[in-house]
Amino acid sequence: MRIDIITVEPDLLRSPFENSMMKRAIEKGLAEVHFHNLREYGHGNYRQIDDYQFGGGAGMVLMIEPIARCIEKLQAERTYDEIIYTTPDAQTLNQATTNHLSLKENIIILTGHYKGVDQRVRDKYITKEISIGDYVLTGGELAAAVICDAVIRLIPGVLGDETSALTDSFQDNLLSPPVYTRPSDYEGMKVPEILLSGNFPKIEEWRTEKAYERTKQIRPDLLDE
Ligand code: ADE
After folding, report:
1. Superfamily of domain 169-224
2. CATH 1.10.1270.20 placement within the chain
3. To the nearest 10°, the Cα dihedral for 197, 200, 201, 207?
4. Residue 163: predicted pLDDT
């Protein structure tokens, strides 16, 4: 999978891709990530990329021309399956969307900034708009990193243990059950007996029951879906 990220803050984005699982995926050749500094597509001495909004109001808006130049340059090189825009005024990211995106070959992610982008960018180029939650970040860069992390870990071969992504929270609309490791008794706090029993069908039953309990208590809305 190739991901091209168009951003005004490329340096803010680098670290998540240089560490841990995303680094491993890139090193294994399973994911390729390229950053494009929008500023380089701005015109004039100041490489202008934003301007005041028509109709008045606080906050700058990213202009269509620099974004169009960058997207169209990329599109001339290859076909993109999705062009994503990160913004709080969109549907919230969920596991179904990350599963869907993990099957794609080429993706562009345009990260919002300031007051956002000119609506015409969204109308002309964007195929999917994603929010990572009902709160406002300074820019969409961290949202792009979150989306990439959630998607890249699902690409076959990225995770060492192939089954571990399948048993993540949300894969079946349930939160994960509690997990324990040694010691089996910490200052009188004991690990549930069943997990030490070696009876794997019973352990699976217990985990499913706990997953339902936890979901019902913390995220009952998931059970309605
Ligand atoms: N940009 C600013 N806030 C955001 C959010 N919650 N999700 C995605 N992009 C954003």
Report:
1. tRNA(m1g37)methyltransferase, domain 2 (1.10.1270.20)
2. 169-224
3. 80
4. 59
Between 18-22, 120-124, 168-172, the lowest mean confidence (pLDDT) is in 168-172
Mean pLDDT of the region 30-43: 97
**131 near 137, Cβ under 8 Å?**
no
- Pocket lining: 135 vs ligand 1, CB cutoff 6 Å: yes
Most informative mutation of 132, 146, 148 for ligand 1 (most atoms within 8 A of CB): 132
Q: Is 62 in the pocket of ligand 1 (CB under 6 A)?
A: no
Q: Which of 7, 9, 12, 131 to mutate to test the pocket of ligand 1 (most atoms within 8 A of CB)?
A: 131
The model's pLDDT over 161-185, given as tens digits with 9 standing for 90+, comes to 655 776 777 878 899 999 999 999 9
Buried-state track 88-97, b at ≥16 Cβ within 10 A, e below 16? bebeebebeb
Q: What percent of the chain has pLDDT over 90?
A: 90
> 0.90 exceeded by the pTM?
yes
Beta bridge partners of 163: none
